Amino acid sequence: MGKADFLSPKAIGNRIKSKGLQKLRWYCQMCQKQCRDENGFKCHCMAESHQRQLLLASEDPNQFMDYFSDEFKRDFLELLRRRFGTKRVHNNIVYNEYIGHREHVHMNSTQWETLTDFTKWVGKEGLAKVDETPKGWYIQYIDRDPETIRRQEELERKKKQDLDDEERGAKFIEEQVRRGMDGREPEEAPTFTELKRENEEEKIAFNMASSSVAGPSKPSSLLGASALKAPAGATAKRKEPSSASESREKKKKSALEEIIEMEERKKKKQMSASARTENWLQPNIVVKIVTKKLGEKYHKKKAVIQEVRDQYTAVVKLVISGDKLKLDQSHLETVIPAPGKRVMILNGEYRDTEAVLEGIDEKKFSATLTLDSGRLKGKRVEGVAYEDFSKMP
Fold first, then answer.
1. CA atoms of 113 and 328, how far apart (whole Å)
2. What DSSP state is assigned to residue 117?
3. What b-and-e string marks burial along 335-358, b requiring 16 or more CB atoms within 10 Å of the CB?
4. Which residues, 6 or more positions from 235, have their beta carbon under 8 angstroms from its beta carbon?
5. Are 342 and 355 in contact (CB under 8 A)?
6. Which of 115, 158, 227, 379 matches a 20 to 30 Å C-alpha distance to 343?
């Protein structure tokens, strides 16, 4: 029987069927061939090419299973990262999108029997966050890109600095209010009551006899006495406001001085911010390894920087084992010694200056240092952030 015409209904139907997904029971993973019915799958299994693939798989079956498992894991996590990012999503939603691709690797050719087993394995390996709910398993991708981690650390550091500035401003306002209230009694709010008459029949009378009945001699004497007494009382009353005004001027002057000092601090802070740079690596300082990619052997271990390359890369030597590693700046953090130890300032106005650690302020995440080198030797510097200095060996 001849082959159907290209535009015949049968040929068009065959092309439509070949485009979509077919039954998994008629798919050969070894040959990566999809058959449309049972007869076609049976003919494919009897073919010579399929028999050769089976002979190759029988020699080392674990090799083929590992290959398909790695490919399935890579494609699944790539789809999760690209399609959903770091959002928490049901694993079936991701899997349904994955199998929508016609050339995907099937689950029955991998080391995992079910999607639940694969989800548990991903969570155990730390490739994603997984949690079980009554509705099923949910999965969330963990982005370990160094650029993303550095961007998140910068945002957290900026938030912490903004909070510190707000706290300082609130404390300054509270201090000014407290100074203004010193020596002044709190004013009590006046209380108003209703006018109540005990007896409604009683008449209200005003006594004007003292001023109207008195003779001409009494008013003159009263006026004279009042005229003599008035200047003394007036001077006494005038002196009190003068002393109060002087104290107010002093208080205003002290508040003005405080504002000037605050402006000077802001200028110093802006100067130090302009002197800051993104790279802080310096030779001959002690650092701590914070990356987990090197394993538990090197995680949170201290090392000394031997050499700095390209400003953001350092060659370090571990203190305990003596191993040498080449690490990026984002994989290291500074080490804060005990008070009295020598440190190196790594950023800001006093960069590359040796100093002595005097004390630590845990609430503000900063320290007080005394410069121990340069023309400003002996100067005391307060409010140096933890990440701006590190211990010297």
1. 40
2. H
3. bbeeeeeebbbbbbbbbebbbebe
4. none
5. yes
6. 158
Q: What six digits make up the tokens of 104?
A: 């995907």
Distance CA 63, CA 69 (A): 10
Distance CA 373, CA 170 (A): 36
Whole-angstrom CA distances from 289 to 144, 217, 292 are 16, 102, 9
Task: From 274, 275, 271, 270, select the one nearest 346 (Cα to Cα).
Answer: 275
Q: Rg of the chain's alpha carbons, rounded to an integer?
A: 42
Instruction: Considering only residues 349 and 327, tell me which one the structure prediction assigns the higher pLDDT.
Output: 327
Residues 72, 120 contacting (CB under 8 angstroms): no
211-235 pLDDT, tens digit per residue, is: 444 444 444 444 444 444 444 444 4
- Residues 153-191: tens digit of each pLDDT: 888 888 877 777 778 788 888 888 887 777 565 566 567
User: Which is nearest to 153 in space by CA: 284, 305, 291, 271?
Assistant: 291
- Residue 360 bridge partners (DSSP): 367
* Two tokens, residue 65: 């299973």
3-class SS letters over 294-342: CCCCCCCCEEEEEEEECCCEEEEEECCCCCEEEEEHHHEEECCCCCCCE
Cα-Cα end-to-end distance for the chain: 88
Residue (of 28, 122, 109, 33) closest to 74 by Cα position: 122
262: which residues sit within 8 A by CB, 6+ positions away?
172
